[in-house]
Amino acid sequence: MESGKPVIPVGILYSVSGEYGVIGREMLNGIMMSIEQVNASPEFDFTLAPIVRDPGGVLDRYHDHCHDLLYRHGVKHIVGCYTSASRKVILPLIEGANALLWHSARYEGFESSNNVIYLGAAPNQHVLPMLAWLLREHPGDIYHVGSNYVWSWEIDRITGEALAATGHRLTASRLVNLGDTAVEGIIRDIAERRPKVVLVTLVGQSAYRFYHAWREAAEHDPYLASDTAIKLSLTLCEAEVSLVGKAALEGYLVSSAWFQTVRNDANDRFLEQYRTRFGDAGSPSVDSVAAWTAGQFLARAVQRCGGEQVEAVRAAAWRDELDGPAGQVRIDPDNNHAWLTPRLARCHEGRLDVFWEGDAPIKPDPWLTWVDLDALGPGAS
Amino acid sequence: MSRSRIRVRGLRLLAIACDDRDAHHLQQQFQRLGVEACFLADLPGDDAFENTDMVLFDGDSPVLSHPDRELAWPALPRIVLTGVEAPSRLQWIIRQAPSAYLRKPVRFDGVMTALTLARAAADQQQGLQARIERLEERLRIRRFLFSAQLMLMKEFDLGEDDAYALLRSLAMRQQKTVEHFSLDLLARPEGYLRLAKDLLAG
């Protein structure tokens, strides 16, 4: 490095190819932009050297790349993962090497490792705010369609328990296997039963096919074509809206800790920098912001403690607070998850427009220890 | 029902829906412990369990745990491999009634403990089940005991306690439980009442 500053290697483990490569690309963009900004800044006495690996969405490759990063390249910090399955695969390696994983994706919770900093939303920061809003504004039964894996299983449970206390229920829990695109039967069932609320937790190709199949079926079905049904998503992001096309997603309500339409100076700067760096083809998502935030927290913590040693970096990160694109973010020392502000947006003309946001960041509760699901409904405090 | 020796050599096990890395580590450890294991991608039909002593399965497997699917487990000890701790997953695992668990990813330690505890828990469960069946059977025929007791009270003008004592000595002579003897007495009273009369006279 011409700067003469010490170099700290950072492993980057995002799948930019494979089933969820579209989201992986935006996460990679987020962390790369963050690292470039750190390296260009005179505020830091070191530079970060990213070592980028693409596991292609294959679990075994996460394991092999992670092993390689830890033991061949000697990294102490890895930014990466999207699915819980991939995180669970590398977690023993990370813990065994006493490294630190900076995990940017929101997930279903029920995990807190001392060797992970969780920057994505825990269920109490994005699932529960959406349910609370729904129970308040549109109380009623819910039709759930999701993918057959832990994320949807857990959302199904949380939703069912929250609904039970209000006298309503899940009228269906239709789960399709990951990657399966045979969703027409479910669309027919929805058209027949005409639920008031449809909750979609499908991911990847199943989700994309579902959105299109709904739109195709809507050409012959006034109910599907109307905005009678409230359609909810907990995963939809801007990059996917570009991929799927705005027509199929019009009207969807989405819960997330960040949208492009969040209004604050840091976000305006972030969007401008992202556009400058990656062009109009890139469309940052909440995951891009979380990956960017991970880079900032990591660099600031290294700067504060004067090294890359895991215990010191983690402790320094706990003492930090970042005023970023998603508002104020800090890391909770109790469980290593981020304090985040919940937001709800409506998909309109291909934009995810924020129509509700929390007053302040919410303390992460990954084990849902401190919340009563049956007190989410109206009248509850 | 306790086994004084802790040894798993010769145990025949079917491992179902494990991922490759877990299967590899399990296989290595099984070999050291003398466990004969067969690895399958999905739950097989009943016949496959004929020469099997124990089952092990991945509790996070989407193959096994599709909501439209009810798994028909054989009456064998079951070990579940657990990774995800979300309540929805734990609810599903409870429904499979495992005898023991092993955390994923599988390492070398803990396999012996899981095998041993699974077998002990299944033995204990089996013992309890057999005892419950015996007690339920006794409960079912208990009302016949009262009828038999009443018969003796009337026939020989006895009080409750004396009638029960007589019933018990008659049952002992026939080497039966009081309940089962009561059934016989009610079915064929003549002979047994003569015997009772002799006993009382004797």
How would you characterize this protein structure?
The complex is a heterodimer of chains A (381) and B (202). Chain A has 381 residues and is α/β, with parallel strands linked by helices. Chain A folds into 2 domains: 7-121 and 263-339, 3-Layer(aba) Sandwich (Rossmann fold); 124-256 and 343-375, 3-Layer(aba) Sandwich (Rossmann fold), CATH 3.40.50. Helices cover 41% and strands 20% of the residues of chain A. Chain A has 12 helices and 15 strands. Chain A has helices at 21-40, 59-71, 84-96, 123-137, 150-164, 184-193, 204-218, 222-225, 238-244, 265-278, 286-305, 310-318; strands at residues 7-13, 47-53, 77-80, 100-103, 116-118, 142-147, 170-176, 197-201, 230-233, 253-256, 321-324, 327-331, 338-339, 343-348, 351-357. The radius of gyration of chain A is 21 Å and the shape is globular. The mean pLDDT of chain A is 95. Chain B has 202 residues and is an alpha/beta fold. Chain B has 2 domains: 12-133, Rossmann fold (3-Layer(aba) Sandwich), CATH 3.40.50; 142-201. Chain B has 7 helices and 5 strands. In chain B, strands 2-1-3-4-5 form a 5-stranded parallel beta sheet. Chain B is elongated. The mean pLDDT of chain B is 93.
